[in-house]
Amino acid sequence: MEQLDVSDGFDVHDYRHGLKLLKQDRGTMTLENREGFGCPACGDPFERLLVTEHRTGSFGEPGTSFCLARTDERLLVLTH
């Protein structure tokens, strides 16, 4: 299982072959993990990924476990 690498930023195009775009607006995108990529925080496969440049926002459903990963430009929220 390939793990998302955020050590030098995050470029979604490096993982497009296994991530399906579900929603995109200015500064935020939501993707589904179709390839079983590993979470950069815990290593386990994740279900959905929110990538945002915004300081605030909401994503997912209450009761869902999630991990966070931060790059210089973006916040990644991964649900399991």
Describe how the helices and strands are arranged:
Layout: E1 19-25, E2 28-33, E3 48-52, E4 66-70, E5 75-79
Antiparallel strand pairs: 1-2, 2-3, 3-5, 4-5
Keywords: Cell projection, Cilium, Flagellum
Protein name: Flagella cluster protein
What does this structure look like?
- Keywords: Cell projection, Cilium, Flagellum.
- It comes from Haloarcula saliterrae.
- There is one protein chain.
- This protein is mainly beta.
- The protein has a domain of 44 residues.
- 0% of the residues lie in helices and 35% in strands.
- It has no helices and 5 strands.
- The chain has a 5-stranded antiparallel β-sheet with strand order 1-2-3-5-4, with no helix packed on it.
- The mean pLDDT is 90.
Question: Helix count?
Answer: 0
Return the structural class. Answer: mainly beta
Radius of gyration: 11 Å
Q: Helical content, roughly?
A: under 10%
Organism: Haloarcula saliterrae
Keywords: Cell projection, Cilium, Flagellum
Protein name: Flagella cluster protein
Can you tag this structure with a few keywords?
mainly beta; 5-stranded antiparallel β-sheet
Q: What is this entry, summarized?
A:
This protein is an all-beta fold and 80 residues long. The chain has strands at 19-25, 28-33, 48-52, 66-70, 75-79. A hairpin with a 2-residue loop joins strand 1 and strand 2.
